[in-house]
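User: I'm writing a tutorial on reading structure tokens. Could you give me a worked example: one chain, its sequence, then its tokens, then a sentence or two explaining what the tokens reveal?
Assistant: Sure. Here is the example chain.
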Amino acid sequence: MTAGALIPMFAALADETRWSILTALGEGEASASALAERLPVSRQAIAKHLAVLQEVGLVEPVRVGREVRFRVIGAELAATARALDAIGRKWDRRLAEIKEIAEGL
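And here are its predicted structure tokens:
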């Protein structure tokens, strides 16, 4: 995952309401109305947040009869976690090199 792909993902995840929506959807599919009943946010606001999450590939709509439910796309979250892990490993190597240089002085 490139930095260009990570920036919109992190921007979407930075919002507390969107994080709450993802957490709720982690428990199972839900419609915007069902999410609005569980969270202190209007259905219209939930719909806007779901659109942002869908745009960055974190959720997808699933039609169940007349209802549209949303579910988390786990592969995108896993790819983001792998990208963060790679960044963390690079920083760990850099810090270890700095420590070695500092201790050699």
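What the tokens reveal: Helices lie at 3-13, 16-25, 32-38, 43-55, 74-104. The radius of gyration is 19 Å.
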